[in-house]
């Protein structure tokens, strides 16, 4: 499954840079391995870092958004399944700030 950077930060695709920064600070603080004993905390922390790295850079974000749109057009069923799996696993198994 490919990473959904917006989902990692709990944001919509139209989020502003200020929203991205705020979500990054909150999620990074919550999932930091020194502060969170959950077995997947380090993995989620790395996903949050990567999401911020991509979404806070205008060029990288544009390329990421273009790729998301292309994937949706090329294989809509697979993309919809990935989105649903990411959403349902986040809703059913975790509590976030």
Shape descriptor: globular
The name of the CATH architecture is Orthogonal Bundle
Using the CA coordinates, give the radius of gyration.
Answer: 14 Å
> How are helices and strands ordered from N to C?
HHHHH
Low-confidence stretches: none
C-alpha end-to-end distance: 24 Å
Helicity range: over 70%
Q: How many domain modules?
A: 1
Instruction: Give the class from helix and strand content and strand pairing.
Output: mainly alpha
Write out the CATH superfamily name.
DnaJ domain
Total of DSSP H or I helical runs spanning 4+ residues? 5
* % residues in beta strands: under 5%
| CATH domain class name | Mainly Alpha
Name the average pLDDT: 87
Number of strand segments:
0
Largest sheet: none
CATH topology: Helix Hairpins
Give a quick summary of the entry:
The protein has 97 residues and is mainly α. It is 72% helix and 0% strand.
Question: How would you characterize the overall build of this protein?
Answer:
The chain has helices spanning 5-9, 17-31, 41-55, 58-74, 76-93. The protein has one domain: DnaJ domain (Helix Hairpins, Orthogonal Bundle), CATH 1.10.287. It is built from 5 helices and no strands. The mean pLDDT is 87. With 97 residues, the protein is mainly alpha-helical. The longest helix has 18 residues, at 76-93. 72% of the residues lie in helices and 0% in strands. The protein starts with a helix and ends with a helix.
